[in-house]
Every structure is written in C-alpha cells, then in structure tokens.
Amino acid sequence: MNRIIGINISINLGKIPKSKMTKSKDGSTVYLNCKSFMMLDELQKFGDNGLVLPQGEKGEDLPIVGNVGIFYASGIDDVKLANRNKKEKEVEKEVDSIEDIF
Question: What's the rounded Cα separation, in Å, for the pair 72 and 65?
C-alpha cells in the first residue's frame, strides 16, 4: 500500500531573495529551488504544518518565504491536517525564523 500526503504550498513572492533565483541555460525560465520542513503531529501558529525556505548552504541565514499545509493523508495514521481558517492578523508578529514557528 502506498502512503500518500497531499500538501498545499503558499509562497510570498515578495520575500524571495533575487540571489536565490536561477535562470535556465537559454534564459527563458526562472527557477527557485526550495526546501520544506513539515510537522506531522501538530500545527504551527498559522494552522499549517510547516514552512518553505529557499535552498541554501549549510548555516546560511535564509528567509521563510512560505508555508505548507497537509490537506490529505492516506495510509498514514495520526497526521494533523492543516487548519487554514486562522487569519494572519490573529498572529501578533510576523514570523522571521524557524524558531518562531516550531
């Protein structure tokens, strides 16, 4: 039996550092390589399961550019599904680091 997780990904395009964007060889397409850390057992402040960061070097200070939320889980027990009903204005301060979320 396959284990499947469906996720929603939200990215704030204004927070993406231009230095992390790469162009295709012919220059026609721009890419952003990202990584995500997800919690399966609990939700973070915004009602999501985790965050999105641009890909970087070990120890590099990277901005949080988005979040991820699990909306579907099959073959996996006890996964918390995201609750995106929580509004950002309910959170007192903007999240600037991983420690602010986890």
Answer: 23
Q: Edge-to-edge strands of the sheet including 34-38? A: 4-11, 66-74, 50-54, 34-38
Kindly state the DSSP code that residue 98 receives in the 8-state scheme: H
pLDDT tens figures, 16-71: 999 999 999 999 999 999 999 999 888 988 889 999 999 999 899 999 999 999 98
The domain ranges of the chain are 1-15+31-87
The pTM score is 0.72
